[in-house]
Each structure stands twice: as structure tokens, then as C-alpha cells.
Amino acid sequence: MTDEPPRFDDAFRERLHALFAWRRDVRRFRSDPVPEALLGQCLAEAALSPSVGNSQPWRFVRVRDPGRRAAVAESFARCNAAAAAGYEAERAALYRRLKLEGLREAPEHLAVFCDEATECGHGLGRATMPEMLRYSVVGAVQSFWLAARARGLGVGWVSILEPEALAAALDLPEAWRLVAYLCVGFPQEEHADPELVRHGWQARDPRGARFTER
């Protein structure tokens, strides 16, 4: 006996499209705490993600300690200053005006790591592409993001950080490699367009997905 697969109708597909369109990277959060059950549901759905060899290498770390959060914010400040120095003239001025994180506002911080020493999966599927472990973690991040958005939560992915400094500040196993640092909370505002489009950094590619045949 096998489980019957669910049937998805046009109405569901339209709502799924809306979920993708409204996912958005959030940098402005309300201070309201995220209910424990709500966060747990999103993490449970992230764990349904596919992974190479069924290795499930994602490791979600909830960062709550003020000192450790401060170390993350300091890392961002250093990296952000260095990044700004890499631009010139108007582009540099625009960069400095952008809000690129919600580290101080977001009630929840999740550091997401890849356990590159995991024995789960027995190495299947990654002998020639070991990076598949990290790609699997990226898939789990996207699943978490969509699960959060479907429940009214916003997520912001902060990449302007020093991975080694972060791992040291959080005192984690050496084999864990940072993939994402997520700010999570209820958004202050809602927008259908990406933040970087709205503030003039980069327009969306009107062609959408790039598809090539060979």
C-alpha cells in the first residue's frame, strides 16, 4: 500500500506563485517575539528539504547570547566598511545608504552551517561534487524562508560577514562551515519588489530565468 500523493489545483498554484513573489529579503523587523511553536514549524519544514545522499547536513544554530550577537554585528561592520571602500563616486554613496541587515532589530538570529564531516549519507553523490553538501543546506534555507513567509514571518540573509570569525564566536565544531546567517521576525513593512530594486541598486532581469539549449 502506498500513500496517495496530494493533488494541487490551479488555485493552489496561484498562491504558491504569490508565495515565491512575496518571499523578499527583509531588513526591517518589528520587535515582537516570534512564538516558539511558529519557529519550530518553519524549522520542521526546512528539514523536509532534499539533500545529497540523504545526508541532511544542515545545522541551524539559534543565536541568542547578546555577546555573540554583538560579535556578529561587529563582523558585519568591518565587512561592510571594506565593501563600501570597493565602490567609487555615486555607487559608493548609494551603497552606504542601503540597509543591508536587520541584526539589531530582528528578534531571532539563525546561523545555518553545513556539517562537512557528517557520516550521514555515506558519501553518496558527492565524490565528484563535494560542494553538494553546501548546496543541500542552501535548499534547506530556501525551504525555511518559504515556510516562514507563508506564516507571516520575514527573513533576511546577511552575507556581509566573516565566516571564520562567526564560527569562532559561536564556538562550533571545526568541520561546520557557515552557509547563511538569517535574521527572522515580523516585517515592519511589506513590498512586492526587492529592496535593492526599490532603492535603485539593481533592476530585475526582465527575461526572468535564463534558459539555454545546446
Automatic annotation (TrEMBL):
Keywords: Oxidoreductase. The keyword Oxidoreductase applies. Its EC number is 1.13.11.79. InterPro entries: BluB, Nitroreductase, Nitroreductase-like, Nitroreductase/BluB. Residues 21-185 form the Nitroreductase domain. The keyword Oxidoreductase applies. GO terms for molecular function: 5,6-dimethylbenzimidazole synthase activity. NCBIfam families: BluB. This is 5,6-dimethylbenzimidazole synthase. It comes from Methylobacterium symbioticum.
